[in-house]
Amino acid sequence: MKTFFNLIQEVQKPGLCHRCGGCVTFCTAVNYGALELDKGGAPKYLEIEKCIECGLCYSICPVIDELEEEVKRKLAWSSPMGRVMETTVARARDERIRARATDGGVITALLVHLFDTGKIDGAIVARPTGRFQRSPSLATGREQILEAAGFYFDTSQGMNQINDRYLTYSTIEEFAPMMQKGLRRVALVGTPCQIQSVRRMEALEIIPSDSIKFCFGLFCSGNFIFGDAQRKKLSENHDIDWDTVKKINVKDTFRVHDKEGKIREVPLSDLDFMKRHACRYCMDYASEYADISFGGIGSDEGWTTVITRTPLGRAVFADARNKSVEEFPVADNANYASQALSTTRVASNEKKQNARKQLKTQGSKGVNVVS
Ligand SMILES: Cc1cc2nc3c(=O)[nH]c(=O)nc-3n(C[C@H](O)[C@H](O)[C@H](O)COP(=O)(O)OP(=O)(O)OC[C@H]3O[C@@H](n4cnc5c(N)ncnc54)[C@H](O)[C@@H]3O)c2cc1C
Ligand code: SF4
Ligand code: SF4
Ligand code: SF4
Questions:
Q1: Are 215 and 195 in contact (CB under 8 A)?
Q2: What are the domain boundaries of the chain?
């Protein structure tokens, strides 16, 4: 039976850990309590003697391919980037949501819709806590869901608040309150690696996945470390004054919006020096295992590219259509959605190719090189 010890050898030591928190989430939720996350979000033994060698943390890990085929089968995954039931370009109907949102505010609008119609008791999101900081958050009310929208800068926080937790979070802290409060119907917003980990828990029918009713996945080209040095280099190379920045978003480029509405575009390749190491080996761009996937790529500013992937995801979007969300009018561009899908496919393919190259160089065995 392989255990966390093997995750250390096969995943952590070769630098492949996505820091999704899946292993710690399960071990904590089931009360074995053998693992914890360190300050940087990496899993480690808390009390090794508490490990009963159940082996489930190993199976849950998205880097390990043990459950890959089963998860794919359950979700009717198909090549080249997962099941696509419907693609659309959409935005929130509520202007207040749009004003706060990363792109079109569709995620927030759908979460609020699910909450208002009594379909969820809460949502695991990432709340802004500073100019570059986010903390995992269990939102159990409308206002909390709204507050978690978008990428926003709070200039009152000062530059000393900037640390490398930007874009990086683990949901582990939020599964515990979810279970303590007895919430049984929660929506999870997560990066592809986090969604993959929850899907593996579902395949094993283990807690806390039974309480996650909706998986909303973000497109993801990588997780970037925004330490002092990285920020300084970015600022020098691209003439960015962080004090004038209002929001950032990621499409095919990294976009820095200033308070006057100007957008500075930075090629994603220029951010490579600050990309988290494990993200170089990751093949999932478009959240291939989510109920609905969301990204900015393929859509104009203020709109979100939305891919519904499961019947559940399609039902959620259909219920919110023309109530909480609106689609780009087909009459104005009949090919917009299919172009957005093609653009996403190109980005997805590029990410897979790069990851394959990296894995070949790295020469690791037993890791998830499928898809
Ligand atoms: C790390 C990361 C990388 C991304 N890379 C790309 C990319 O390469 N290409 C692309 O097209 N899109 C990318 N996205 C997705 C994009 O930035 C938007 O989140 C997406 O288009 C949805 O926009 P929206 O306006 O509909 O969402 P909003 O209504 O603004 O809602 C966003 C939701 O995401 C949650 N959230 C924010 N950050 C995180 C996080 N780190 N982890 C989990 N939840 C979070 C918020 O709490 C909120 O609930 C990335 C997002 C993240 C977090
Ligand atoms: S008890 Fe199970 S889940 Fe926890 S560390 Fe040990 S093998 Fe992993
Ligand atoms: S990738 Fe996730 S599940 Fe695997 S070791 Fe890292 S934190 Fe744990
Ligand atoms: S690229 Fe995104 S999905 Fe992949 S490991 Fe990094 S954060 Fe997770």
A1: yes
A2: 67-362
